[in-house]
Design goal:
71% of the residues lie in helices and 0% in strands. It is built from two helices and no strands. The radius of gyration is 34 Å and the shape is elongated. The longest helix has 43 residues. The protein has a domain of 50 residues.
């Protein structure tokens, strides 16, 4: 039942090679899937019409001293804090 050190080393090396082979195979598969996905996306981008992008103009409103708006915001904050 006792195994010699040589047998244990041999089985350890076999296990290591099997594990490394599985990882290497998985990584190769992963690289292949990524390459195929890249090709598909690139093909789809070429087929789709270009999207017209308009630069949206953001208008910055000038600050106003509308007292009723300020009062409404202050009242809402005060009521929220009372809850």
């Amino acid at each position: 039942m006792e195994s010699s050190i040589g047998e244990m080393l041999t089985s350890g090396v076999k296990l290591m090679l099997i594990g490394m082979g599985i990882v290497y195979t998985f990584l190769l598969l992963l690289v292949w899937v990524i390459q195929q996905t890249h090709k598909i996306i690139h093909r789809l981008e070429q087929q789709s019409p270009p999207i017209a992008t308009e630069t949206a103009r953001v208008s910055i409103a000038e600050p106003s001293d509308d007292n009723s708006t300020i009062a409404a915001i202050a009242a809402a904050i005060h009521r929220y804090e009372q809850k």
